[in-house]
Design a protein that fits this description.
With 171 residues, this protein is of the alpha/beta class. It is built from five helices and six strands. The two termini are 22 Å apart.
């Protein structure tokens, strides 16, 4: 389990949208299988699709970190930078990279946007939850991330039980 953060700040011009990127892979399989590279590509495409020039101020990469763990040091770092007014947006592949528990994930997104006016940039666009339609989208996306996690977890437990029933005790 590791978290790496990197300050990148490539632009001093205040006309740039100051962005932090967050990539997370909860298992070694996801990390080695190109999961973080795919997230990087998706984030870069999303940033290219918006109509403003961007400056990547911080890159955060979490390896072997569960999305159900709150609070995480990387999220606390983002909040600290938000309080200092260093960021305008957070870019992630999707909200499940922030977290897989609906309440703390939505709460974190809410805090960033409501208190610090930091927008969320994901694969299909840019969101500001002070707009009702974006608020509803983010609420359902965080709920969906948790439900997917619960389904995946129950499916794994069921398959492990079946292996055990068949006499395979090395599950």
């Amino acid at each position: 389990m590791s978290t790496s953060t990197r300050s990148v700040s490539s632009a001093s011009n205040s006309n740039f949208l100051r962005v932090a990127t967050l990539k997370r892979a909860s298992s070694d399989k996801q990390t080695s299988g190109g999961g973080l590279d795919a997230q990087t590509r998706i984030i870069e495409e999303a940033l290219n699709d918006i109509e403003e020039e961007t400056s990547i101020e911080r890159e955060i990469e979490e390896k072997g970190v569960s999305g159900t763990k709150f609070p995480r040091s990387s999220l606390l770092e983002l909040l600290a930078e938000a309080r200092e007014g260093k960021l305008d947006a957070l870019a992630v592949k999707d909200v499940s990279r922030i977290g897989r528990l609906a309440a703390p994930t939505f709460g974190f997104i809410w805090l960033l946007n409501h208190d610090f006016n930091i927008e969320l940039i994901v694969e299909d666009g840019r969101y500001n939850i002070q707009r009702k339609s974006d608020l509803i989208q983010m609420f359902f996306r965080t709920l969906n991330a948790e439900l997917k996690n619960r389904f995946r977890t129950s499916y794994v437990h069921e398959s492990q039980l079946e292996e055990f029933r068949q006499g395979n005790f090395h599950v």
